[in-house]
Specification:
Number of helices: 28
Strand order of the largest sheet: 3-4-7
Structural class: mainly alpha
Shape: elongated
Length: 691
């Protein structure tokens, strides 16, 4: 139900009722007018809710003509202009029912018969009205455009209809009219189930609404502090950040810690550090504050209880007193769907009060109405489900804490969230979220559901199965920028051939239309490719600084320059963790066999290699200024003099200097870093091995 639209409708009904009461007072028809116009008005609302193809203007007009045929003279059909009220009412009802599908018309005829025989009709209609959700939102034109102009005068309320008065009391702050207090004073019945529901302070809810920021895009990343940041969570954070920055909006960090059993000490620090390392700076959050804090759910506990009470009052929820042996088994994960038979939702007000009087523990469950619920998602399109498939899930647990399903709706609304990015596993729960929004009369956010990140075609990535988290990838030596770039492309296509993006470039290029419905496969080889590309693209000084601790893991001899080692590594490593093993030969010459000197491509074997070392040792020994340029000139001249290819000479020199088949640099770079004495010593060892 959209409250303002409903109120617009009811106000028009009340205007005409009040106008005609003054002229009909002497006829004794005042009570009948109030009763019948109310019943037909609710009937019109119900019809348009269930059958949106029905023309609401015709239905409403017939409701009004039913009671006010004499007052509305402009468009009254001639057959309704009769002096006999009873005949006129019967004809109007027939005309109204003719607008409806036959099956529905029969149902309402039966309803009218029951209403005329029972005194509980008003409470039945009030309950029906309380459950309506989207009655006249499809009607584009204001409902009073076809009314005679003389009825556009200032609104006057009547208090004769107790159900109507009770509903206006419920929406008193929405109406913002001084005369509401008069209605309350004149009402003849208390609000529905007042003995069960506490009286709510509407001003508190108004204050909360007034705090909600509006006018710009607001997104939120809402992780649970469970110990690590898995790849799917990082992708959600990234997309949420990109949407906010793309639209010059606000990016919010909210901690969802309602499931206390899964909390891990230090996990919030992991979240803060990950976002900071990735450059995903949040504008509001637990550590920086903001206008709609607190930003940790357990610190917002009191507000959830109040909104649960409001939902109870609006019949969108009910107390469930079942213990575990009575209720269907609940899953260990509170976000999973469990089916409950709804038995407590059928308790009478007296039964509920009796249980409350003896302090029977309870949870609060969502009341799922009959019918269908639909929503639109920017990735998956329009989705409609039969409400029979939805369960009456728990909203407030017995300890007073909200479940994820309730808290995230309340928080998203109160924080003014306009766009919600989350995994596609929540698609099945979204209809229930929308029903909560409708029960409160709130506008749902824009939904963006992302398909999962998979280890392979059959299995989702899972920490339990050894798949890496963001922290694991960092520990494996992958660069943050490379991880972020690759994660952005897991299920999103920028269009075109470009795939290397900095964070600022991602902000510019990102568009929701590029998100795929298909799951994305996490490919470690592809990530290595991105990491290698980012390492090669770094400024040499920046890479040297980043690589230094990894180099020093195995190269601790201070004679060897870290900057020079980093220079030969940068174009030859894919991750930072490749570094220690690649450079360990600088500190200690490994043990190796002469088979390493055999290389078909370089045209070397043990005999050729010994001859090359025999010639290289005295040539290098003659260098007085030991540097890379002089080493290069010496060996090039020697190869030319020996009439061999450069590789035939360089290969055995490199093997002897490093003792490894694979090295990050060539013979010249390695010899320059080792220094003259260490180079000659190692070449002589190789020479001896080949003797």
């Amino acid at each position: 139900m959209q409250p303002r639209k409903l109120i617009e409708f009811l106000n028009i009904i009340e205007k005409l009722k009040c106008h005609t009461r003054h002229s009909w007072t002497s006829t004794g028809r005042q009570e009948s007018v109030a009763e019948h116009s109310w019943r037909l008005a609710v009937m019109a609302l119900l019809v348009t809710d269930e059958f949106p193809q029905v023309d609401i203007s015709k239905v409403v007009k017939m409701c009004l003509i039913h009671d006010f045929g004499e007052a509305i003279t402009g468009d009254v059909p001639s057959f309704l202009k009769t002096e006999q009220d009873e005949a006129r009412e019967d004809l109007a009802t027939a005309e109204l029912l003719a607008l409806l599908p036959e099956s529905l018309a029969c149902e309402f005829c039966a309803l009218f018969t029951e209403m005329s025989q029972r005194n509980t009709a008003e409470s039945k209609l009030f309950k029906a009205l309380d459950n309506l959700e989207a009655v006249v939102s499809h009607n584009e034109a204001p409902l009073d455009t076809w009314l005679p102009c003389e009825y556009s005068e200032n609104l006057v309320y009547g208090a004769e209809n107790t159900a109507y008065s009770a509903y206006l009391t419920l929406l008193r702050e929405e109406l913002k009219q001084d005369s509401i207090e008069k209605i309350k004073a004149g009402a003849q019945c208390a609000p529905l189930q007042e003995d069960v529901h506490m009286s709510l302070d509407q001003s508190w809810f108004d204050e909360m609404e007034a705090k909600i920021p509006c006018g710009k895009v607001r997104t939120r990343f809402a992780p649970s502090p469970t110990g690590y940041m898995h790849v799917g969570n990082l992708r959600t954070a990234l997309y949420t950040y990109l949407i906010a920055r793309k639209e010059n909006g606000t990016f919010i960090l909210r901690i969802e810690d309602t499931d206390q059993s899964r909390l891990v000490e230090g996990a919030m620090d992991v979240i803060y550090k990950t976002l900071a390392d990735c450059g995903l700076t949040h504008d509001e959050g637990p550590d920086v504050g903001g206008p709609v804090g607190p930003y940790i759910q357990t610190e917002r506990r009191d507000s959830y209880g109040k909104y649960a009470e409001l939902l109870l009052e609006r019949d969108g929820a009910y107390r469930c007193f079942c213990d575990k042996s009575d209720a269907d088994a609940e899953p260990a994960d509170e976000k999973a769907i469990a089916k409950y038979d709804g038995r407590c939702g059928r308790l009478s007000a007296e039964e509920i009060q009796a249980k409350l009087d003896v302090n029977t523990p309870y949870v609060i469950r969502q009341r799922i109405p009959a019918g269908k619920t639909s929503f639109d998602d920017l990735v998956f399109g329009h989705i409609e489900v039969d409400n029979a498939e939805l369960d009456d899930g728990v909203l407030i647990k017995s300890d007073g804490l909200p479940t994820y399903n309730f808290a995230n709706v309340i928080d998203d609304h109160l924080m003014g969230i306009t766009h919600v990015v989350r995994g596609s596993e929540y698609l099945s729960s979204t209809p229930k979220y929308n029903l909560l929004y409708q029960s409160f009369g709130w506008e749902p956010p824009v939904y963006i559901h992302c398909s999962p990140v998979m280890r392979d075609a059959q299995h989702k990535m899972s920490k339990r199965h050894g798949d890496p988290s963001y922290e694991d990838l960092i520990a494996m030596g992958y660069l943050t920028d490379a991880i972020l770039n690759y994660v952005a492309l897991l299920g999103w296509s920028p269009g075109g051939e470009e795939e290397m993006f900095t964070l600022s470039q991602l902000i510019e290029a990102f568009h929701v239309g590029g998100i795929s419905k298909s799951p994305a496969i996490f490919d470690m080889d592809k990530l290595r490719y991105f990491s290698s590309a980012y390492i090669r693209a770094m400024e040499p000084d920046a890479f040297a600084k980043l690589a230094a601790p990894y180099i020093r893991e195995t190269v601790q001899d201070p004679r060897f320059d870290v900057g020079k080692i980093a220079a030969i590594l940068q174009q030859r490593c894919e991750t930072l963790c490749d570094i220690p093993e690649k450079v360990d030969f600088f500190d200690v010459l490994p043990e190796y066999g002469t088979e390493l000197f055999v290389n078909k491509k370089s045209k070397t074997d043990e005999m050729v290699s010994k001859a090359m070392l025999d010639a290289a040792i005295p040539a290098l020994e003659a260098i007085t200024d030991w540097n890379q340029e002089n080493i290069h000139a010496c060996l090039m001249e020697l190869a030319e003099r020996l009439e061999v290819k450069n590789a035939t000479l360089m290969f055995p020199v490199r093997i002897a200097a490093a003792g490894k088949m694979v090295t990050p640099g060539g013979a010249i770079e390695i010899c320059a870093i080792l220094g003259k004495d260490e180079t000659l010593r190692r070449l002589e060892i190789g020479q001896q091995k080949l003797s």
